[in-house]
């Protein structure tokens, strides 16, 4: 414990760099990926995709009260959007919609932002099953990580993933997150306390940029080179 005590990292800071923002584009197999703030008008597509993709998503998402159909109905979006917008205005999260060729395709959120001497947050994401394996999440994680570390002033990002979630493990490996540990019975997911692997990246790992690294590895192209 430092001389300032545990309270110091949680102290509010007057400015919240990096929000609002538009990130990308970056072109991958599935199309051209860009990130923008979530909008009230995303509700229709958000609900349509999430009702269709229940089986694909529910296995990996934190347990919540209520039935999937109620929680993901069109009318469930406005309060979620308002809550995300409020957190973003207070500098506590960066809630992005992922778009592919201009259409809503999922979400990526930097959450639980803590500044001062910690400057840390988590990253969470989901992508429509119709685009699975198309490189969308990889591009989105690279773009948002570059932004959080280079522009929003964070030093470290963490991602926690169930060991069974092969697709998400692969995404983090491609972007360059390193595995740091195993959290036992960490999070209530799909109705039970699940172990999670902890991955992290810090600003020192970013080099010339993670999106540029994807391009150099041939995993993405800036759109003009397509
Ligand atoms: C995880 C998720 C975001 C990945 O999105 P995506 O756009 O398909 O990801 P990408 O295409 O960028 O990369 C996925 C990689 O995993 C691989 N993959 C997919 N399913 C796999 C499996 N069952 N086993 C091994 N690899 C798998 C893909 O082949 C791809 O790797 P490649 O590019 O080397 O071929 C998406 O599956 C999803 O939304 N899942 C449900 C929600 C979720 O799990 N969120 C993350 C919680 S930690």
TrEMBL record:
Superkingdom in the source lineage: Bacteria
Keywords: Acyltransferase, Transferase
Family: Belongs to the acetyltransferase family. RimJ subfamily.
Cellular component, GO annotation: cytoplasm
Record flagged with keyword Transferase: yes
Coiled coil (residue ranges): none
One Pfam family from the record: Acetyltransf_3
EC number: 2.3.1.267
Domain N-acetyltransferase: 55-204
Protein's name according to its UniProt entry: Ribosomal-protein-alanine N-acetyltransferase
GO MF entries: protein-N-terminal-alanine acetyltransferase activity
């Amino acid at each position: 414990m430092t001389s300032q005590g545990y309270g110091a990292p949680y102290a509010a800071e007057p400015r919240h760099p990096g929000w609002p923002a538009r990130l990308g584009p970056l072109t991958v197999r599935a199309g051209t990926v860009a990130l923008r703030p979530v909008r009230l008008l995303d509700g229709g597509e958000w609900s349509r995709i999430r009702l269709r993709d229940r089986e694909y998503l529910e296995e990996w998402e934190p347990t919540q009260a209520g039935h999937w159909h109620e929680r993901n109905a069109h009318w469930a979006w406005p309060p979620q959007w308002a809550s995300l917008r409020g957190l973003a205005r207070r500098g506590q999260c960066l809630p992005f919609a992922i778009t592919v060729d201009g259409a809503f395709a999922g979400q990526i959120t930097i959450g639980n932002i803590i500044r001062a001497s910690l400057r840390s947050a988590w990253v969470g994401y989901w992508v429509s099953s119709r685009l699975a394996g198309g490189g969308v999440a990889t591009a989105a994680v690279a773009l948002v990580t570059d932004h959080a570390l280079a522009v929003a002033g964070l030093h470290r990002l963490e991602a926690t993933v169930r060991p069974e979630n092969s697709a998400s493990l692969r995404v983090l490996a491609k972007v360059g997150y390193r595995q740091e540990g195993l959290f036992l019975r960490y999070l209530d997911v799909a109705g039970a306390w699940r172990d999670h692997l902890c991955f992290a990246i810090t600003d020192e790992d970013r080099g010339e940029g993670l999106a540029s690294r994807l391009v150099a590895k041939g995993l993405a192209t800036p759109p003009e080179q397509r």
